[in-house]
Specification:
Number of strands: 0
Number of helices: 4
Largest sheet: none
Strand content: under 5%
Structural class: mainly alpha
Distance between the termini: 52 Å
Radius of gyration: 24 Å
Shape: extended
Length: about 80
């Protein structure tokens, strides 16, 4: 275990001291489930994020809308 990991575990352990026994048991169950669960492939998750923005408009139309909605204001800076 690295120094950083050990420090994180100790920090969380301090937080858990104030929990009730029931809460601690539920926490242990959730941690156990997370260990047993299938680890998501980072690459798979990354590629699933594509296509999350759905629109009937073309890329050019979307770009035009974004650029036209920009607002600039001139402000004089005094030093």
């Amino acid at each position: 275990m690295s120094y950083t990991d050990k420090h994180i575990v100790e920090s969380y352990s301090g937080l858990f001291e104030g929990l009730s026994s029931t809460s601690k048991i539920e926490l242990i169950e959730n941690l156990s489930k997370s260990l047993k669960g299938k680890k998501k492939d980072k690459e798979e998750t990354f590629y699933k994020s594509f296509g999350a923005f759905a629109s009937d408009k073309s890329a050019e139309e979307i770009i035009k809308i974004i650029k036209s909605s920009r607002k600039f204001r001139k402000k004089e800076l005094k030093f």
